[in-house]
Amino acid sequence: MKLTDRTLGIAAILFAVFLGVFGYDLEAPFSYEPIGPKAFPLLIAVLMTICGLILTVRGGNEAEENTTSANLRILTMVVYIILYAFLFQLLGFVISTALMTTFVGKLFGAKWWQAIVSGVVMSVLMFLLFDVSLDVVLPEGLLRGVL
Q1: What is the dihedral of CA 16, 55, 74, 114, to 10 degrees?
Q2: Which residues are registered as beta bridge partners of 4?
Q3: What pTM did the predictor assign?
């Protein structure tokens, strides 16, 4: 099968339908935000559907095949995302996000010190943005009592 913009567009639409179906049933056991947890996946599904439709209607450009190293980086990124999802509650937002951004930074060629510093700074700033500014409850994990 040749990979084209249309192929990606159809795949995006199918994934958006999947995201919309499962995102629609999200309900919080208690109300802690005015719009609830289903708004984000549904918004992403709508945007992904629009982009998928644009690629399907307008597209047709053939894509080059990935190199082996690119496929390995993609697979590594998928593993990082899965680990992030499993460790999010246990370690908390700050630690899990710092680890995720550190390893992603290293995956994209940063030096270890750059990846660590940017990972820690980014996770703390994002925690402050969401927790303090937007009043979104995030898991504290191992830092419970410190934050």
Answers
A1: -100
A2: 62
A3: 0.68
